Amino acid sequence: MSSKPIATSRSAAGLPTARLVTWWVIASEIFIFGGLLASYVMHRLGHPEWAAQAAHTHTWAGALNTFVLLTSSLFAVLAHKAADSGDGARAARFLRLTALGGTTFLCIKAFEWTHEIEAGFVLSSGGFWSFYYTAAGLHGLHVLAGVIIMLFFAADAARNEELQRVECIGIYWHFVDIIWIFLFPLLYIAR
Amino acid sequence: MLERFLTGASTYSQSIDHLIFLIAALVGFWLVVAEGFLFWLIFRFRHREGQPSQYITGEEKHLKRWITIPHMLVIACDVLIIVGAVKVWMNVKQTMPPAEQTVRVYAQQWAWSFQDAGPDGMLDTGDDIRTVGELHVKVNTTYHFELVSRDVVHSFCVPSFRLKQDAVPGRTIAGWFRATRPGTYDIQCTQMCGIGHSVMAGRVIVETPEQHARWVQAAGSPYTAQAANPASHTHASLDLSTAPGAEFAEVRP
Amino acid sequence: MSAEAHHAEPGFFRKYLFSTDHKMIAMQYLFTGMIMAVIGGYLAYVFRMQLAYPSQQVPGYGVVSPNEYNSLVTMHGTIMIFWVAMPVLLAAFGNFLIPLMIGCDDMAFPRINRLSYQVFFLSAVVLLASFLVQGGAFGGAWTSYPPLSAKGAYNLTPVGASMWLVAVALEFVAFLLGGINFVVTTMNGRAPGMKMYDIPIVVWMIVLATIMFMFSVGPLIAGAVMLLFDQLLGTGFYDPGRGGDPLLWQHLFWFFGHPEVYVVLLPALGIVAEVVAVFARKKLFGYKTILHTAWAVWVLSFVVWAHHQFVAGIDPRMANVFSITTLLISIPLAEMVFVYIATLYGGSIRLATPMLWALAFMAEFLIGGVTGIFLGASGTDIYFHDTYFVVAHFHYTFVPIAIIAVFAGLTYWYPKMFGRMLNETLGKIHFWGSIITFNVIFIPLFITGTAGDQRRIYSYAQFAEQARPALQHLRVVSTLALLVFIAFQLIFVFNFLWSLRHGQRAEANPWMANTLEWTVPSPPPHGNFADMPTVYRGPYEYATPGRREDFWPQNVPN
Question: Going edge to edge, which strands form the sheet with B201-207?
Fold first, then answer.
């Protein structure tokens, strides 16, 4: 990677470029999810009858998923710590554990959706379900993307390369986590 | 002022025209001053040999006055315009004078149809008069209208009344007008509504009380064949039941 | 690392198509934008001909049908805003200028930058391909309001509608990728010594615009996904019959759509600031004032969107709030224009072509600005909403932004981009021809709009009030002026292409300007700076007292 431009290595703002770009990515993502969730909340307030639909969601599965994601975020923190101390191999191990958490989350999600679809609740079964699948689906895509990127970064970290990326993917992962913390009560619990 | 371009035929057409005139006077003045000053500067400070430019940062207080004073004046004009705009808006859109007659306006791809409340002044009763493409109203009478759309977003616009209101499927939007001048005026759809948007025309016919009474009589009793008025200017299919979006035909508040 | 400049010359594909060099990507955006402008202009020609000579053969097109007319106006708007104004002002100038002006060798993430262009190119292909599909290109206006846009049964262009949406969404992704790069590069990649207030205004403006874009577009991306699901997967987000709400889209669209105006306005103002300072040989009047007003516009632009919806069926009380915010935003904008005008005071104004364009921007944008007041004031908007008055108004803002300011920038930076000077005589002919005809195109439209002409109408034959001969004459005048305007653009194209080969060779700093891009050879080599520069002062030190020369480049120690 010797061909990196000087622009990448400078930090006139006092923040490493990688971390800076992660924050900007998250900032723009917040507005995407913000728009979607604001639309959902507005609709939900206008349609009290959607609560009956929301009752069909598997709250316990959602709760379990919250736990899985929070645990994986803990691994992301540990990976960051390991990377800070220069231990690439250890960082890679924790990153892979985080990715495992993400995969578990997606498996549980798949289980949930299978049940809901079998029960006849699909994307087009009404306003609540449209928002439910769209919001959770968009979030799921972010989890999937995070897992894939994490596995690549873990491979780099295992060779003690690009360790600054461990922190960045960690920040992203916390963001994905926080989005879920919003989604879970809004989609599953709110009555 | 606007009258020269297009007749005004409702009570609020005048107040809107006056507001337009007020804004035109205020911003017109500023536009002339600003453009004049711009061109004067270009001429006055054109490049001349041996006359270097001055070093002015614009950060000093006495220089900032050149910005802050016009700035204050702009704010003053803005306040004036806001007050005028809100006053007109409250009058036209936010308050409704008591109704003397009610009409429901249906928008659909690509025709206007109307349901006049008839002699009893109540909608959805036996004496309602339904028309397509033509809205008959009595002069100097306050009409309330209920605007509904059967398919996509349309906009109910009578330029001569200075009236414009979007029709949104799923909503009933209320409004009012009071025509002041007998005559025939255009109704236009002003929200892109598909390939027939440009032919989604209608007429509003403002009638004297006598003319209107004759029309009501001729229209006769409930739900007559008036709907198939041959004089209708609409080019769209008149069969409302098969028109796209007919499933929303019974949208109610 | 500047040794890279001595690398072997890369092959054609590496050099022109898959380059990661910010200057080449800027050129890709510029040329794509110019080609799209030609297409958008052609569409305007066709529908203006239809309006002037209804239902007659349009030379080079044929007879226009109503649904084709709708597609033409929709695509004209979409292309001119998303595929001309955005790529040229933001991406082309941003890519070219940011690294050069802040004194670094490239963008922080060159490969993401390349990806940005590739996604953008794909989006343009998808959009243009929609002309060829069954039913033709989408014709539901560039605002794409559902339910019209959501159901094929309503718009009769089901494929075109989805392709339009996909193209727009891809374009947003491209600009998010590019935009994050701009912001990060400017924050982190500045040359040593370049403090916040030493950054040239145009870079500030592009970065502010980019951040504004990033924050405003998010909800619309979510909205676009929802609309796409409504179109293809049978959801009912915008379907009132199934618990949805058509107005939701309008809010999401205009929450983006109005800031979008400022997204392209700010870079244009930035370009004009650079040109005015150089050609008036003047320090900008109140650099910080410009920044503060830009920030004020930035903040206010997020709370004005519903002035597009006064009569759209929103709660009427909301109109009062948005009327006030909309008139508030006129204050910083007016102030910014005053500052620009004040900069001329005490200057030594050289009326070279770039300066003519910059001055024309101020003169014309003022008209666009003041006519906006009629639309921001709720009371008058009842009448003017969706009339040709609106069309004339926003063309008086968008033409100064996307055409006049772009010509100011192109004629100013052309020597830096291509290493040769443009022909001044041709430049001036092109300038006067374009400016005069531009006014003749749009002043009649203010009048027809005031007389009640509504937008997006294929033919006024159905409307007695609009079918008056006097109004038809005005429409013809406007169309004829457009033909002349287009003819004058050929002069620019000729000048542009001819000067590429035969123009006088440009030195590093032909305009005697201060900013860093003028310290490197024209055109700049790969890697830009042979020795990375250090910055000692702000960018507008012209006619500094006590100096023999009337300019003082940012990188010269004393």
Answer: B134-138, B201-207, B183-189, B154-158, B163-167
